[in-house]
Write a structure and sequence with these properties.
- The protein contains 18 helices and no strands.
- It is globular and about 70 Å long.
- The protein starts with a helix and ends with a helix.
- The protein has helices at 2-25, 30-47, 55-75, 87-103, 121-145, 150-153, 157-180, 185-206, 209-226, 229-235, 238-251, 255-258, 268-289, 300-310, 322-330, 342-372, 377-393, 399-444.
- By secondary structure, the protein is an all-alpha fold.
- The longest helix has 46 residues, at 399-444.
Length: 445
């Protein structure tokens, strides 16, 4: 009875959020448009008591930053917002998050207590050493080659191996960190340090921020989820440091390539918004500005994203990507790499209905992994690992979710489970043999 009452209250509350934020969205003032999105997203966080592990908080918070960064830059007359502003980009992003609000569960996972928590730490440690070694070798190769830009690194098989191995290393790291979080502090610190070093050097020589961000986000959420209620309050203080580190990392991302530190000419607000967050809403504005130069794809890009998700990484038979189309169509060659926008992918296929459809799919996907995140350590790590994947995809496309999920996360976890199961059976056989020998010795006497 109480559960039904809570569900009813939440639905009424969500409807009120929709009405209040929707009324503000009718205004032509940019600050009220931003406020409407602020009320919708932060209002959803209240429902789940600002629990960082709930999608309303981590997805809502990052979606908010990606959605309002370009409008804020435009509002403050930044020189980095010169392509104009249309209220429609706020409406589209508001509609996208409204879909998340109603299709993502508002029920919370209160605590994490894993079942079937058998993991062979020895096997995993060997795998971590092996994958870390590949990443170090790839970084060493890049340092010898002396690449000056990220474009020079593309299509190199050794570096590509490093890129793919980095995701596997981080997944294994997450499993071991979660497994040992309550046992041995020295071992935890050694593990963090051992994995951070190859990740950092790969970032330094390649300019790939994704792996460094993933490392910090994984570490943060694993500690937040598993270290108890009192520790949650302490780790909350590290969240501003994590956010401040984003523009700093962005400044130094080309240091190992060109020796340059970029972004020193911007104030901190511009540095923060320009570090990564402005791209999604700016790209959406670009789509609207260029609306006469493209036709609706009618589902084609979504089909290609699914095919890219199921294709093995070594085949590369899917040549089309919506992000590639966007960059080639609207940017010069020297400005390639602008990313795309998840909201925009829905829009370029079926307009506003496409946005709703894409975000219903994303919401259902998030629900599946969030609800199961308490089933076992493997489900938990998949969910935690997907957090940065979904975050990054906001300024990308569905392919940025499906490809890592299928080709790396699920595949690696299945392999780890199989290896751990086999090692468990081998260990059981050795124990049986030992017991049998001991019994024979006893009877001989």
């Amino acid at each position: 009875m109480l559960a039904k009452k809570r569900i009813g209250v939440n639905i009424i509350y969500k409807i009120l959020l929709t009405l209040i934020s929707g009324i503000l969205l009718l205004s032509d003032k940019i600050e009220l448009n931003i406020l409407s999105l602020t009320i919708l997203i932060f209002g959803s966080m209240i429902i789940v008591k600002f629990d960082l592990l709930h999608p309303y908080v981590w997805f809502g918070g990052v979606f908010y930053l990606y959605s309002i960064s370009y409008p804020v830059l435009y509002y403050i007359n930044s020189i980095y917002a010169t392509i104009g502003f249309s209220k429609e980009i706020i409406i589209m992003q508001w509609l996208a998050y409204l879909t998340v609000l109603f299709f993502v569960t508002s029920n919370r996972v209160i605590s994490y207590q894993f079942k079937n928590n058998y993991v062979n730490g020895v096997v995993n440690n060997y795998l971590i050493i092996f994958t870390a070694s590949i990443l170090v070798a790839s970084s060493f190769y890049m340092s010898l080659k002396g690449y000056a830009s990220k474009s020079e690194i593309d299509n190199n098989s050794i570096i590509e191996l490093g890129l793919r191995t980095g995701l596997v290393l981080l997944l294994l790291y997450g499993i071991e960190l979660a497994r040992n979080i309550d046992y041995n502090l020295k071992k935890i610190l050694l593990l963090i340090f051992f994995v951070f070093i190859p990740i950092f050097f790969f970032f330094y020589y390649s300019g790939e921020r994704d792996y460094l961000y993933r490392f910090f986000i994984l570490t943060f959420f694993i500690f937040y989820a598993l270290k108890g209620h009192m520790f949650k309050k302490r780790i909350m203080f590290s969240l501003p440091i994590l956010l401040v580190s984003i523009p700093i990392v962005n400044m130094f991302k080309y240091l190992g390539l060109s020796g340059e530190v970029k972004g020193t000419d911007k104030n901190f607000i511009e540095m923060f918004l320009m570090s990564d967050f402005h791209a999604a809403s700016r790209n959406l504005q670009t789509l609207l500005n260029q609306s006469s130069n493209w036709n609706y794809f009618k589902g084609y890009t979504i089909i290609m994203d699914f095919l890219k998700g199921i294709e093995p990484p070594f085949l590369n038979f899917v040549n089309f990507s919506v992000g590639g189309w966007f960059n080639n169509a609207f940017f010069d060659e020297d400005r390639a790499g602008q990313g795309f926008t998840l909201v925009g992918e829905g829009y370029v296929n079926f307009g506003y209905l496409g946005i709703i459809g894409v975000f219903i799919f994303i919401s259902l996907l998030i629900n599946i992994f969030y609800k199961r995140s308490n089933n076992s350590i493997y489900w938990f790590i998949i969910y935690i690992f997907l957090i940065p994947t979904f975050m990054y995809a906001i300024r990308g496309s569905l392919a940025n979710i499906l490809s890592p999920l299928i080709n790396y996360i699920l595949m690696t976890v299945v392999i780890v489970i199989i290896v751990n199961y086999i090692s468990k059976q081998v260990l059981k056989k050795k124990q049986k043999v030992t017991i049998y020998k001991e019994r024979n010795i006893f009877y001989d006497h």
